[in-house]
Write a structure and sequence with these properties.
2 copies of one chain form a homodimer.
Chain A (H helix, E strand, L loop, with lengths): L16 E6 L11 E6 L4 E6 L7 H9 L6 E8 L5 H19 L6 E8 L6 H13 L6 H7 L8 E9 L2 E10 L12 E6 L5 H13 L16 E6 L14 H23 L7 E9 L2 H13 L1 H8 L5 H9 L12 E4 L2 E5 L2 E2 L5 H8 L3 E7 L5 E8 L3 H8 L4
Parallel strand pairs in A: 4-5, 8-9, 10-14
Antiparallel strand pairs in A: 1-2, 2-4, 3-9, 6-7, 7-8, 10-15, 11-12, 11-14, 12-13
Chain lengths: 405, 405
């Protein structure tokens, strides 16, 4: 049911970054559920992680280790290793140690990532048994297979890639992501991996990733539920024949930032397009706020309202529900007589009431589309924020009622 | 699909408070959709109203007039008269003026209430035409018919009644409520009317109503959407042969407060039991918080999570989703190792991880019931809060996708 999400685009290999996929049979036999990624020696690595207080064991470990010299990222699906306490931490550490042993690197150079059911013990032996095959499979042109290997309730793999030329040298930024439910990322998405062959100093790489996720992964919501396992990683292998980028300035930095933002945005929006049960891709834009936070409060009140989401599913321009959500968003001293609301290009509410020019037919025409824009003009200031979300369909309830059966 | 909600209990008449019902044919011909309530001269009246910034025209008018001498409450269903701007205010005032004219009272003594679709013009003529029949129908034993007359997507009428004896005199508290969707009352519920024949000074009556709603109507949520039309009214007719209650002290005050709290709680819970598509009645209790607000933040994060609500619908003890919601509730410096979670009497999580004694069978046995308790022990302090909510079912999506068709 993905909305406007086609087959994977061309995912350019990133020199110095290899991917290997294997089957551990964690949830279903034969399913690709273990992905190993190898970063060339000297790579810098940045990561952003869930702010959920119940963050999973692998998140705790990856956060700790990302500051050091990272060589391998080890991902499994089918089990989140979250809510598993101390045994969960030991299990995550064991799988990393085994990979380190096989690869001949320090244990601390391996970062673990898990996604799947919360609260069940990680099947360590199954994952360990799959590691040799994953290592044997490592190659730079394995992005598309890896994008499938990290899927859970996703219906389609998600990837994005950009290249730019600087001083006659081609630089690549390629990424993959997964996620379709429990999506309201807070510092990161469910799982995202982006690599570039640019050479970037680590503190700057972390800043770049933080800025990119704040405008992409941190602006999407499907169900308002922030996951325990959200992680987004950015690897810079430095294999390109260009100088290291050490500061947020200059043309090379600007081009890399642009490519990274585009890849992040495409990956984040792909998650929404593949949202559980999604039949609509909805852009909620809030303009004219006094602060960015109040724009976000209004945007999320709209994006999380089950009444608006079911109306979107029904293609029903029930704009009263949008006004009601704006009104309950908690914006202090909100003067509704300054508010205009647009559905696509159609003005549905003007100065807080039904727009005199509005007809139900105009609203219905916009709602009939698969991609819908809701624009709210608060008339209080100069701040804007944009959030992407989905509708709430019968299929959403079915998927989540039957998730563990 | 209401959960544990039977036929109306006996609703004792309240001397000095009469109800009359008529059909205006607002949404469907023949449906009872206009209710007039008459308060005896000398009654005191208190009201609590939605905090939604887009509050409806009748709410604006009723808030303004409740401080004066109130004689009539005029309610229509089928049209919320919200998001209707200045014309909506004039329309509400016109219906009140017509009732005042027919009844021979000041226009300011009539308070309007509307519920139904947002954003459509109020059919003033239809309502005016129904007023003579409603007035002719006024009687003290019309509570049950009025409970039906204020319904919209409700499947069952909702009422509660208590009597107590003081100094050999019987005092009555009776109320009705409506609401099934767009329910996260903020100072009030969709619509609630409670009357007593006690004599209570107005400021004290307002305090009593505020305290009662804060523990009942303001602790229920179905979909997290605060309505534009929430109102709860409390009328004290003073017809009983007992002294006026002027202060929050003494046995009579204590008995009245107890009866009012019981009626409010029963009415509020009835709204949840009849929640749109509800198949479960869920009590979320959060104990051990450092503040009441953090207990509410955790409780609402759980009560609003579509992932938890769909798991409840599926009777699936997917407790990892509960941990995830607690973890994202925004409680500062939350130490998950102090947290225990119970499903009914079954400890599912102990010290932040799966309880060693927990088995899936125990969880499934609790989830199979129609009434489910989720108890979260934060281990941070002495504050507690309780919230009532429902599951999220296929029927919820169906009702709200088809609401206007």
């Amino acid at each position: 049911m993905a909305v406007g999400l086609g087959p994977l685009p061309t995912l350019h290999p990133v020199p110095g970054f290899e991917l290997g996929i294997a089957s551990a049979g964690i949830k279903r036999p034969g399913r690709k559920d273990v992905v190993v990624m190898r970063c060339a020696e000297g790579s810098t690595v940045a990561g952003v992680f869930t702010l959920n207080a119940f963050c999973a064991a692998p998140v705790i470990l990856a956060k700790r280790r990302v500051q050091g010299a990272v060589r391998y990222l080890l991902t499994n699906t089918g089990n989140a290793n979250a809510g598993t306490g101390e045994p969960g931490l030991l299990a995550a550490a064991r799988t990393c140690a085994r990979l380190a042993e096989l690869a001949g690197v320090d244990e601390g150079a391996v970062l673990p990532f898990s996604t799947g059911v919360i609260g069940e013990p990680l099947p360590v032996e199954k994952i360990e048994a799959a590691l040799p095959a994953a290592l044997a499979d490592l190659k730079v042109d394995n992005w598309a297979v890896a994008a499938e290997g990290i899927m859970t309730t996703d219906t389609l793999p998600k990837g994005a890639s950009r290249q730019f030329v600087h001083d006659g040298v081609t630089v690549t930024v390629t990424g993959i992501s997964k996620g379709a439910g429990m999506i309201r990322p807070n510092m990161a998405t469910m799982l995202g991996y982006i690599a570039t062959d640019a050479k970037v100093a680590q503190p700057l790489l972390q800043d770049l990733l933080r800025d990119a996720t704040n405008k992409s992964f941190n602006r999407i919501t499907i169900d308002g539920d922030t996951s325990t396992n959200d992680c987004c990683m950015l690897v810079a292998t430095g294999q390109v024949a260009l100088p290291e980028i050490r500061a947020a300035e200059g043309e090379l930095f600007a081009k890399l930032k642009q490519a990274l933002f585009e890849v992040s945005m495409e990956l984040a929006q792909a998650i929404v397009r593949d949202g559980e049960g999604a039949t609509k891709f909805v852009t909620v834009q809030v303009n004219g706020g006094a602060t960015h936070q109040e724009c976000l409060d209004v945007g999320y009140a709209v994006a999380h309202s089950p009444l608006i989401k079911t109306a979107l599913f029904a293609s029903d321009p029930n704009w009263g529900r949008i006004l009601a959500a704006v009104g309950r968003a908690g914006v202090p001293q909100l003067d509704v007589s300054l508010i205009d609301v647009f559905l696509g290009d159609v003005c549905i509410a003007r100065q807080g009431g039904r727009a005199p020019t509005y007809t139900e037919e105009q609203g219905a025409a916009v709602m009939a589309k698969a991609e819908i824009g809701i624009r709210i003009e608060l008339g209080r200031g100069d701040c804007s924020e944009t959030i992407w979300t989905t509708d709430l369909s019968h299929e959403y309830v079915k998927i989540n009622a039957e998730y563990r059966t």
